[in-house]
Design brief:
The chain has 17 helices and 19 strands. The chain is an alpha+beta fold. It binds zinc ion. This is Six-hairpin glycosidase-like protein.
């Protein structure tokens, strides 16, 4: 298989403040085998198959253009669903990521032609009775009602507009499409004009309605263009009721709709990087710490019935509607932002690994060639993926009749699974995740090929091609012990491999050098914060699930797979990775025998 590396990325013009390490561009890392790649392939099949005219229906209808005979969608893109067209921005991002990572021209062409059609919608605003720059599948009058606090149809209009803006930005940045830039800046101009007329208290009141990551995307447009008016617009979306307690590290999350908040925190991180104002950094960091430590399940997900509850409420909330997938998608974005500010801490990628492997990887149905997903991941004893309450439709997502928020973030997640495996600074390569992949570290003319069946195997190898003096910082996860590193078969001595730190291997590298990392795994329990007798069971990074019962002993039955047996309620049961628990009833949290 040949790999293509695309260099059309449009770089931001503003230098980020406070950043001391960087993520690689999507075009620099390719997946080569394993579950990450399999998930990606299924999503790519769907992205290249879906009928683009159906996705344009609501935009065209709203902007008074012909819908060209296209069929209407159902679910959250039905013509009468209040925030219809929230989904299309996710498609734009996913197509852009598909092109950036694989060079697939079908994805590129779909993104570009979709954007061209959106431009026609925007150009017809005068005839449709909308203001210049407006672009949406629902009437502009919903924004008037939002501002007057009389909006009663269930719409979250800025939430939907945020998705469109984020998608247009990704098409501009990853594909280099200047039409996407023009449509984006016109829409952002509409936001700026509209919000610029409101008083501070009108803006703060308006933010009582979910608005996605408006501060994030506007800050990103500032980073991209250097035009300060976008930063000013971003800062109008600083939600004081949420930011103020977080700035002083108070956990006031109880009762809040969870996924409404996380994008605001990502925005705070982007605003810190734009301004250097440490209050933004503190808000983002404190939000992450509070959520990870006091509101997250063993699989890394948070929320029950879409809401945060009291701090450490875990065992009390093991239900069918736990762990909305969007929240984890957004928490991982926040994690990346924070890691670049503090790349010596492995806490960030310990969480990233935990959440990606145990929540989001298994959110996708491996039996579905279109990679459909589940909205919640039930943690109720005897739960089953794809069999949730009404939001989830009682099923997996479908081709045209779901279009839930989590389906949108799902197609994004599964087209950027490679984006956090590695990181870098001027002298260092960070190895953050263990998965088969090739990195083109073009900044140093070095190629890294990682080969592994991790987490089935506890060992990974990294082959270096290219020469030079630099350090490899290898994440030694907190779950391991007695980690070993060898180079060209020789055990490395004098390098600390303390769990929960980066092992730093500095040398003059030669083409063909092979680094072997062994991270021994063992059975461990992850107790619920609020009930020490209730715990999930993990083997190394992998949360295991099995049949309902109380667990006493867990034994691995094979070295070549992650199959286990356990004794529960006096019976032997089978256990395996939770990410493989699709199509049957499972148990994740157990009452532990004393
Ligand atoms: Zn969601």
């Amino acid at each position: 298989m040949a790999f293509m590396y695309i260099t059309l990325k449009v770089s931001p013009v503003v230098t980020e403040q406070g950043t001391s390490a960087y993520a690689f561009d999507l075009s620099q890392v390719s997946l080569t085998s394993g579950r990450f790649l399999e998930n990606q392939q299924r999503t790519l099949t769907y992205l290249k198959w879906v009928d683009v005219n159906r996705l344009l229906y609501n935009f065209r209808a709203n902007h008074k253009l012909s819908t060209n005979g296209a069929a209407k969608n159902g679910g959250w893109d039905a013509p009468d669903f209040p925030f219809r067209t929230h989904m299309q921005g996710h498609f734009l991002t996913a197509w852009a990521q598909c092109y950036a990572t694989t060079g697939d021209t079908t994805c590129r062409d779909r993104a570009k032609s979709f954007v061209a059609e959106l431009q026609k919608c925007q150009a017809n605003n005068a005839a449709a009775g909308f203001s210049t720059g407006y672009l949406s599948g629902f009437p502009e009058s919903d924004f008037s009602a939002l501002e007057a606090r009389t909006l009663s149809n269930g719409n979250v209009p800025y939430y939907a507009v945020h998705k469109t803006m984020a998608g247009l930005l990704d098409v501009w940045v990853h594909i280099g499409d200047t039409t996407a830039r023009d449509v984006l800046l016109a829409l952002a101009g509409w936001v700026n004009t509209r919000t610029g007329k409101l008083s501070t208290s009108q803006m703060q009141n308006l933010m009582g309605t979910e608005f996605g990551g408006m501060n994030e995307v506007l800050a990103n447009i500032y980073h991209q263009t250097g035009d300060k008016k976008w930063l000013t617009a971003a800062q109008r979306f600083d939600h004081a009721a949420v930011f103020d307690p977080l700035a002083s590290n108070q956990d006031k999350l109880n009762g809040l709709h969870a996924n409404t908040q996380v994008p605001k925190w990502i925005g705070a991180a982007r605003e810190f990087k734009a301004t250097g104002t440490t209050r933004y950094r503190d808000i983002a960091r404190n939000a992450w710490d509070i959520t990870v430590k006091a509101h997250s399940y063993a699989i890394g997900g948070n929320s029950q019935a879409e809401h945060f509850h009291e701090p450490n409420g875990i065992a009390s909330y093991l239900t069918t509607d736990t762990a909305e997938a969007c929240n984890s998608y957004n928490m991982l974005k926040l994690t990346r932002e924070l890691w670049t500010l503090n790349p010596s801490s492995t806490t960030y990628f310990d969480f990233y690994e935990r959440t990606l492997m145990n929540h989001l990887l298994g959110q996708q149905n491996p039996a579905d060639s279109h990679g459909h997903i589940t909205y919640f991941t039930p943690l109720i004893p005897g739960g089953k993926r794809g069999v949730g309450p009404a939001w989830g439709g009682g099923t997996w997502s479908t081709d045209y009749d779901s279009f839930w928020c989590c389906q949108g973030t799902g197609i994004e997640t599964n087209t950027k699974l490679m984006d956090s495996i590695y990181g870098y600074d001027n002298s260092t390569l960070f190895v953050n995740l263990f998965t088969p992949s090739v990195l083109k570290w073009t900044q140093r003319s070095v190629t890294i090929t990682q080969t592994t069946t991790f987490p089935v195997s506890d060992t990974t190898t990294l082959k270096v091609e290219g020469v030079g003096d630099w350090a490899m910082n290898i994440r030694i996860p907190s779950w391991t012990s007695n980690a070993e590193i060898s180079i060209n078969g020789q055990k490395v001595t004098g390098v600390s491999t303390t769990p929960g730190s980066y092992a730093r291997v500095s040398r003059t590298w030669t083409s063909g050098d092979v680094v072997t990392i062994r991270l021994p795994m063992s059975i461990r329990t992850i107790a619920a914060n609020d009930k020490s007798g209730v715990a999930a069971v993990a083997f190394g990074p992998v949360v295991l699930s099995g049949n309902y019962g109380s667990s006493a002993s867990v034994k691995r039955t094979s070295d070549s797979s992650l199959d286990f047996t356990a004794s529960a309620n006096g019976q032997n049961i089978k256990m395996g990775p939770f990410y493989d628990a699709q199509g049957f009833n499972y148990n994740v949290y157990w009452t532990m025998a004393s």
